[in-house]
């Protein structure tokens, strides 16, 4: 047997042992909980039973489990309603949230912004348009208020919206951050306080930010979120400002409809700026004022293309420029660009073409057009550490260059997501397919999508793998996800969504960095920080550990074990931690030359900072309460206002809660929140939602909760539910079934209608709805997602109990039917509002359909012939026929619609608009002061119709005051999506034995297969 074969077998056996060890650690943790008779370990045992039998225990529900749907890999689990957002739920979020997306042809977004400017100048022609929007409450969300036990103990304190990138001005000591859909923010005190400098941007959807000292000092803002999911909003292009955001100018040469991954400034010549986008690599030589496309040789006929079959071929997920100086006195200016579409070249279109034929690294000595070459650097054997990720394994890539004054600037680190794992491949590299376990335990034992951590000592020309998938899920890392590794949620499971890597510029030995920090769901660091990180010395199974764990406080790996210390943590003491899902990091050196440094990380909960001196290391317990003061950047899907000014909300990744009368945001239930409802006369009685229509009610302002979830077929991940504005005890929601509740916190749900199936056989599922007294209208779709299902075709429709064979009656099936909906385009129905004076009159808002914003309608293999035009439609015959009343409104997705005092108000991806009448004769921008970012929900003030509340995705809750008193009552709809883990009760010891046997069986099967 040759030496390579021996090494392959040895390495594979080592990985097999790690798998078994990982499972046995779960058993050990559960055993410890059982020994001390602590509550809540049942979830571990029951999920193991689920892995074998597919059955979920009482009090939990099965979620996920679809394979290869929507081009995304989705896991399955039995979950309760508490915790943070697992990957299978994020995939569901992305699939369903994408229904509300879909921007027309390239250039349409910039045209829409121009049209908005025209309508803004015509406010005098539309009554009520001249007012001012104001934030309703502010500051970060308080996640540890002692009154709200459902969120205490998870290690979070102050949270804000997602941060995607940082950059730092070392001269003026200014830190810049791009904040999801929240624009550009700046801190002048190392993240202790933040101010917005992006309010005047025509779109708050900014994915990356950069600082150049050229042009008088220039902030570059790149549009489009970099998360690469269905919930991703694309941007308008690139902008620049040389007065710290007092004004912004749109740069030329960058298309709209992009995702913005990176702004990279050449510090050898700060006039040169590179942009990594979903539509390729762009280069500026005038400090970001103008750009030209750099055609990378990606192959497959896709060089320089982002149309047709090449729409995924040029996703430049990172770009770095070699820093001048350093230990080897580099001239700088060399460029390394990463093409890293998440599904790589193993994901094929129905016609057999690969999604991204050329994922990998591209090098240029100058960065000029025509000088980039693809690096041939893949390892000859994926089980050996020499070389980069294999072509078929290469998914999303993040790069981290050495930039310290005493470091060798040829050193680069890379994080790689595994495209094969993303597409549903077997997690262990190069093992025979016959070893795949049909029970699904193989996938559960390693659900990570992480491929590896790599280092190059010659700026990308050759690579060594420092850590692989099995190393980061091995016992001893301190990851709070250790138990979840065996339950379908391992570290790196969201590597396509969040990953970054940076060496600490203050730690060096012989020019090589000795401290490295990277982000997946948690924050990681190398264990030995006095050893050169050259790859050669990182060959063991435990080189890296977690320093910002997923769960902390009183939780232990998502379980409420009640132990005085969590055995899964590197710091066995209760502590606060960072919010999960890490997107960005930056090191900021102390100015006194002492060697101290501040690490600032950005994630789905905002910013977190930790400072250490030259002799200490970062640790789990050093994050404090977060670094989010000043931010007002939450991402609400839905809101509900009471007469006393309390507004309940559901937030992306930051729970459900309320803006209280003190103006402060409070999280009152953890995980993701979606929609909300509140008794307008008693704000203590409120309803919020977790996932799949899992609705709960509080009657004491959020201090305690009772589950009242209906039983629904095909419920959406984020299921719209509404309260009747005439009766606070009357609620309605639905999946395939439409159900009503007439006793508020008491009673039960009654099915009043079944949406049935589409002609293709697909289940029709509610997308949104509205109710007003006895009258109700429901928007639905089936198939709701046509990506990879073009043969079935998208279909939407309207169901109602108005205009049927009997008068509508709440709580009854009387009159329910599917309306003809003639004249309504075949797109996603995102908002409905019933005219309170005439139930036969209904208004509908339309978005796109079943496409990501980065996969536009009419793109490759899209066969929908009824896209139509316009986004606001009106029916006066109970939905039988519709008329387009969009008029001169911009052509962007619409999310919400409501009618007030003879005028229609709509919420769109670029703000709110109001009509002169209910026929849309003329439209104007509604008011001033509202950031230009998606409006996901609108509600008229209960008891005060001069008030209008808006859910502003990326900037929290806003309110608007009309000068005149309206005559209508009610609300409007629009919005959606996301979710998390749970906890359980004590479990029988027999399941401990089951887990141990399962782990032993897997180890033996893998080992025996390798021995053949």
What's the topology here?
Blueprint: H1 3-35, H2 42-53, E1 61-64, E2 76-79, H3 87-97, H4 108-120, E3 133-135, E4 138-142, E5 158-159, E6 165-169, E7 174-178, E8 184-187, E9 195-196, E10 206-212, E11 218-223, E12 238-241, E13 249-250, E14 260-265, E15 273-277, E16 280-284, E17 292-294, E18 316-321, E19 335-339, E20 360-364, E21 373-374, E22 394-401, E23 412-418, H5 419-422, H6 441-445, E24 450-456, E25 464-468, H7 469-472, E26 500-503, E27 508-509, E28 512-513, E29 516-519, E30 523-526, E31 544-548, E32 582-589, E33 597-603, E34 606-612, E35 636-641, E36 647-651, E37 656-659, E38 664-669, E39 676-679, E40 682-689, E41 695-698, E42 706-707, E43 721-724, E44 727-734, E45 737-741, E46 749-754, E47 765-772, E48 775-781, E49 796-800, E50 817-818, E51 829-834, E52 842-846, E53 872-875, E54 883-884, E55 894-900, E56 903-908, E57 911-915, E58 923-925, E59 935-940, E60 947-952, E61 956-961, H8 990-1011
Parallel strand pairs: 4-38
Antiparallel strand pairs: 1-2, 3-61, 4-5, 6-7, 7-8, 8-9, 10-11, 11-12, 12-13, 14-15, 15-16, 16-17, 18-19, 19-20, 20-21, 22-23, 23-24, 24-25, 26-29, 27-28, 29-30, 30-31, 32-33, 33-34, 35-36, 36-37, 37-38, 39-40, 40-41, 41-42, 43-44, 44-45, 45-46, 47-48, 48-49, 49-50, 51-52, 52-53, 53-54, 55-56, ...
């Amino acid at each position: 047997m040759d030496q390579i074969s021996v090494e392959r077998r040895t390495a594979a056996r080592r990985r097999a042992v790690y798998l078994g060890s990982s499972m046995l650690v779960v058993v050990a943790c559960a055993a410890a909980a059982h020994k001390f008779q602590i509550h809540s370990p049942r979830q571990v045992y029951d999920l193991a039973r689920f892995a074998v039998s597919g059955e979920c225990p009482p009090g939990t529900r099965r979620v996920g489990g679809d394979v290869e749907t929507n081009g995304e890999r989705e896991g399955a689990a039995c979950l309760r309603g508490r915790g943070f957002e697992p990957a299978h739920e994020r995939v569901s979020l992305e699939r369903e949230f994408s229904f509300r997306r879909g921007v027309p042809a390239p250039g349409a977004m910039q045209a829409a912004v121009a049209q908005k400017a025209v309508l803004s100048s015509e406010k005098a022609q539309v009554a009520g348009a001249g007012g001012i929007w104001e934030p309703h409450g502010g500051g970060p969300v308080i996640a540890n208020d002692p009154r709200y036990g459902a969120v205490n103990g998870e290690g979070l304190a102050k949270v804000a919206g997602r941060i995607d990138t940082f950059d730092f001005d070392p001269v003026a000591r200014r830190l810049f951050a791009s904040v999801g859909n929240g624009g550009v923010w700046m801190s002048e005190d190392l993240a202790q306080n933040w101010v917005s400098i992006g309010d005047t941007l025509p779109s708050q959807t900014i994915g990356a930010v950069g600082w150049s000292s050229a042009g008088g000092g220039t902030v570059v803002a790149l549009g489009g979120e970099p998360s690469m999911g269905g919930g991703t909003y694309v941007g308008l292009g690139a902008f620049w400002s040389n007065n710290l955001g007092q004004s912004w100018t749109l740069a030329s040469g960058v298309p709209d409809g992009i995702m913005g991954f990176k702004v990279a400034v050449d510090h050898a010549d700060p006039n040169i700026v590179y942009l990594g986008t979903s539509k390729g690599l762009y280069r500026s030589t005038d400090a970001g004022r103008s750009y030209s496309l750099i055609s990378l040789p990606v192959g497959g006929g896709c060089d320089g293309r982002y149309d047709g079959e090449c729409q995924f071929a040029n996703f430049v997920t990172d770009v770095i420029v070699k820093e001048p100086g350093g230990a080897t006195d580099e001239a700088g200016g060399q460029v390394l660009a990463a093409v890293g579409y998440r599904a790589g070249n193993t994901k094929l279109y129905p016609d057999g073409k690969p999604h991204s034929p050329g994922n990998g690294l591209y090098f240029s000595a100058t960065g000029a057009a025509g000088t980039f070459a693809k690096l041939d650097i893949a390892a000859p054997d994926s089980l050996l550490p020499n070389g980069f990720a294999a072509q078929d394994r290469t998914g999303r890539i993040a790069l981290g260059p050495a930039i310290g004054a005493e470091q060798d600037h040829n050193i680069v680190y890379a994080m790689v997501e595994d495209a094969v794992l993303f597409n549903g491949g077997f997690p262990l590299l190069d093992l025979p397919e016959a070893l795949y376990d049909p029970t699904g335990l193989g996938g559960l034992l390693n659900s990570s999508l992480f491929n590896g951590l790599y280092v190059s000592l010659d700026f990308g020309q050759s690579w060594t793998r420092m850590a692989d998938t099995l190393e980061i899920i091995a016992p001893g890392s301190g990851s709070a996800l250790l138990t979840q590794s065996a339950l379908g949620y391992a570290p790196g499971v969201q590597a396509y969504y969040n990953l970054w890597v940076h060496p600490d510029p203050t730690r060096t030995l012989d020019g090589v960095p000795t401290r490295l920090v990277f982000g997946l769901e948690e924050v990681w660091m190398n264990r030995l920080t006095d050893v050169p990180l050259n790859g050669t010395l990182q060959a063991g199974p435990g080189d890296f550990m977690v320093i910002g764990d997923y769960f902390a406080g009183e939780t232990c790996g998502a379980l409420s074990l009640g132990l005085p210390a969590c055995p899964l943590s590197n710091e066995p003491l209760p502590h606060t931690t960072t919010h999960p899902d890490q997107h960005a990091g930056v090191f900021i050196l102390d100015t006194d030359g002492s060697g101290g440094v501040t690490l600032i990380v950005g994630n789905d909960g905002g910013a977190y900072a930790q400072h250490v001196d030259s002799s200490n290391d970062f640790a789990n317990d050093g994050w404090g309460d977060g670094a989010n003061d000043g931010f007002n950047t939450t991402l609400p899907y839905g809101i509900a206002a009471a007469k006393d000014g309390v507004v309940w909300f559901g937030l992306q990744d930051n729970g459900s809660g309320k803006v209280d009368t003190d103006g402060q945001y409070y999280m009152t239930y953890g995980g993701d929140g979606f929609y909300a409802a509140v008794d307008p006369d008693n704000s203590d009685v409120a309803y919020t939602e977790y996932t799949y229509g899992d609705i709960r009610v509080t009657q004491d302002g959020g201090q305690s909760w009772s589950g009242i979830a209906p039983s629904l077929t095909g419920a959406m991940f984020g299921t719209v539910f509404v309260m009747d504005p005439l009766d606070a005890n009357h609620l309605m929601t639905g999946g395939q079934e439409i159900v009503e509740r007439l006793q508020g916190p008491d009673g039960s749900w009654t099915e009043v209608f079944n949406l049935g199936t589409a002609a293709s056989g697909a289940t029709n599922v509610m997308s949104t709805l509205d109710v007003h007294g006895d009258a109700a209208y429901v928007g639905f779709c089936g198939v709701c997602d046509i990506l990879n299902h073009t043969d079935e075709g998208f279909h939407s429709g309207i169901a109602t109990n108005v205009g049927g064979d009997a008068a509508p009656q709440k709580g009854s099936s009387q009159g329910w039917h599917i309306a003809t909906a003639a004249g309504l385009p075949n797109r996603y129905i995102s908002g409905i509002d019933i005219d309170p004076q005439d139930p036969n009159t209904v208004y509908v808002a339309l978005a796109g359909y079943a496409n990501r914003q980065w996969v536009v309608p009419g793109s490759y293999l899209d066969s929908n012939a009824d896209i139509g035009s316009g986004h606001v439609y009106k029916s006066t015959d109970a939905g039988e026929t519709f008329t387009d009343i969009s008029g001169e409104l911009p052509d962007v997705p619409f999310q919400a619609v409501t009618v007030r005092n003879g005028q229609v108000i709509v919420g769109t991806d670029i703000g709110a608009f109001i009509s002169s009448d209910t026929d849309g004769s003329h439209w104007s921008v509604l008011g001033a002061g509202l950031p230009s970012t998606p409006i996901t929900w609108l509600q008229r003030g209960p008891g005060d119709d001069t008030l209008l509340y808006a859910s502003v995705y990326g900037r929290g809750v806003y309110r608007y005051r009309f000068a005149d008193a309206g005559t209508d009552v009610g609300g409007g709809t629009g919005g959606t999506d996301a979710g998390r883990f749970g906890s359980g009760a004590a479990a029988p010891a027999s399941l401990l034995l089951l887990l141990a046997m399962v782990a032993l069986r897997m180890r033996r099967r893998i080992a025996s297969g390798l021995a053949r």
